[in-house]
Amino acid sequence: MSQSFTFNQRLRLFSLETQSEFLKVIRMPAFALPSLAFPLMFYVFFGLIFNRGGMSGQMPAYLMATYGVFGIIGPALFSFGVNIAVEKDHGWLALKQASPMPISAYFVSKILTAMMFALIITMALFSLAAIFGDVRLSRSEWAMTLLVLLLGVLPFCTLGLWLGLQLKAQAAPAVVNLLYLPMAFLSGLWIPIDYFPDFLQKAANLLPAFHLAQLTLKVQSLDIGQSWMIHLAALAAMTAIFLALATRAFHRISNN
Amino acid sequence: MTINACVSVQGLSKSYGDVRALQNIDFIINPGEIVALLGTNGAGKTTFINSLLGRVKYDSGSVKVFGKAPGHLDARRRTGTVLQSTKMPNTLTIKEHIELFSSYYLNPLPLESVLEKANLVGLEQRRFDALSGGQQQRLFFALAICGQPELVFLDEPTVGLDVNSRRDFWNCIRQLSAEGCAVLLTTHYLEEADVLADRISLLNNGSISMEGTPEQIKSHLGGKRIRFRSPHKPEDFNTLPDVSQSRQRGDYIELQSTHAEHTLKHLLNREAKITDLTVTEVSLEDAFIHLTEESPTTPYQEAV
Fold first, then answer.
1. Consecutive sets of 10 residues in chain B, 304 residues long: mean pLDDT of each?
2. With an 8 Å Cβ cutoff, are B81 and A256 in contact?
3. CA distance B58 to B135
4. A19 min Cα distance to partner chain B (Å)
5. Between B78, B87, B99, which is nearest A92 by CB?
6. Among A66, A25, A58, which residue's Cα sits nearest to residue A42?
7. Is B213 exposed, middle or buried (0-12, 13-18, 19+ CB in 10 A)?
8. A2 part of a folded domain
9. Å from A39 to nearest chain B CA?
10. Looking at the DSSP assignment, which residues form a beta bridge with residue B65?
11. How many domains does chain A have?
12. Domain limits at A114?
């Protein structure tokens, strides 16, 4: 009785899981619309209309990178943080764990969904920046920016996962917002970090969003000049910590 | 020790701090039978089901599901589950939910037969939030059976459903059992256990206080409750035939009778000043109070 899935069955399982997750999220306008529209709207206001000439004309390019980071964090934090809290409290996660679903499918589908949202947001930002902001990058710079942003969802998926497993469904949206919005501001996603007082710039080193923003800006050499290795190491370390905390929380809820 | 049993439990115990949720439970489910685990809220039914699913670490004893540890992949592939008061994502349709769950199993049923068995034909494009309570519960049932399991766990599947929805659900369970699938049903409705189960186990404060066929259990617990107003004291009615218990509840007097028709005949002949008379099934809660008051230390054991 130790039959196992064929490759095609496994592929079907993972693609159905991902498809369901994506449909589930996109059909919730209260979630999908703000997370797609806000980063773009903010970028249009602050990057294209008000500050166009700031930072010696580089504002549209700079804010394209930082609003990209802002845009991809939202779906990752919400899809993990809020949805997992809800599915846990509704017993849906328990039912899935009782089924033969591989638990990896549950997480992979959520990561891929967050990445799809990241892709949509990034492509829309790129288009706005190129068409209305005269942002001109080389092909490899565009590609590199996209890659950093897509992989950049991972630390926030693990942070969201940890929060989602800890929080009650009703508290989750508020807590996630309380974390998301101040972190975005303090990491220099809305206003360039260069304008911040020194101590705030230093404090930003504690925030994962800051390191991701610096990595993204590094592609265009607009970062504040730390080595990319520091940012990558910080992100990797934070991902590992969140993952360890999440694993502990997961074992606690599934085995009491 | 039955080698082919779907579930075999020996000496299972589990405590939460000082609270002993389950105490020394022995339990077996054989292929194809419907076993009802009957108990009040807080009796330990859900803890027991969760132990069988591998969701609770038990303190001592042995639990095997198809010969494997609970929660083992091989065990999960051969079982289906309906958990208590679950909600699923609202924005997916019945069809999407069933197709997804089917993909978890090696030999799933075709969508059409799942819809048919769960009595959901014609609703496949409906979203979860557009379903009635009964339809939602049958969708959970559909997810439990879509992988052609040999055993299905149903944790209080009909709580909160109206009478018709409950009947619909019962029909689904009967059909499933007729096809040879074993069912473990937890419920606090005596009637539900009665109409569905081949065997009933009574769970009371974490231990199995009685086991037997529905007939055996009912003859011990069952009967009707006769309720009325009367100027007399409850004790005055103890002498009526077949009355097993009498008490005052508010303005009413309540008699428990093992043969209501017989008791009523004598009651009405003897006593003229009776108003607001009703006769109802004894609820399990009443039966339990009766049972624990009657024999708090030596639980009745029915040989199976």
1. 80 90 93 91 88 90 93 93 89 95 94 94 94 93 95 91 90 93 90 89 87 78 82 86 85 86 89 84 61 45 36
2. no
3. 34
4. 9
5. B87
6. A66
7. middle
8. no
9. 25
10. B7, B68
11. 1
12. 7-255
Contacts of B262 (CB under 8 A, 6+ apart): B241, B242
- Residue A160, in any domain of the structure: yes
Residue range A56-65, pLDDT digits in tens: 778 899 999 9
Q: What is the pLDDT of residue B288?
A: 56
User: Given CB atoms, is A28 within the 8 Å cutoff of chain B?
Assistant: yes
Q: Which residues of A touch B84 (CB under 8 A)?
A: 91
Residue A204, domain member (yes or no): yes
Closest alpha carbon to B183 in B139, B135, B141, B136: B141
- Residue A1 covered by a domain: no
pTM score, two decimals? 0.83
Q: Find the residue in A nearest to B105 (Cα).
A: A100
pLDDT band at A225 (very low <50, low <70, confident <90, very high): confident
Contact state of B55 with A100 under an 8 Å Cβ cutoff: no
Instruction: Kindly provide the ipTM of the predicted complex, given to two decimals.
Output: 0.87
Residue B300's pLDDT is 39
- Say which residue the tokens 């504040």 belong to: A224
Tell me which chain A residue has its CA closest to the CA of residue B146: A99
